[in-house]
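Quick one: structure tokens for this chain, please?
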Amino acid sequence: MTRSEPMHSAPPPEDVRLDVWLWAARFFRTRSLAKQAVETGKVDVAGQRAKASRAIRVGDALQVVRGEETFELVVRGLSEVRGPAPVAQALYEESEASKARREQQRLQRAAMRDGYRAPEHKPDKRARRLIRALGDIDAL
């Protein structure tokens, strides 16, 4: 057996915990963040709130809210390990309506930022004093 061949080949799982799958599909950076998202109601399975320990199978419909984005997905593959991004993206299929809605929301957020210019450098001592003084006026 060469070094590049796996020691054993395990059969693919029939179901995987929801929080583990979300982590493996790279929706959340850590498994604890995925678990927290599920517990706070940011993940629905088939339109119902789920627990982190819920077993998901291929074909299940998920709705995942991450920040300002909402993903509508269908599970296409199962994995208990976090792999490279192309492998993770093969684990699900996002609906066209979801992609279009996320793109529209992204464009709206970009339009809201239009006209804002970040300062070229940090404020100096005089500018910081003025900023602080303006903050005091707003507090009145």
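The longest strand covers residues 69-75.
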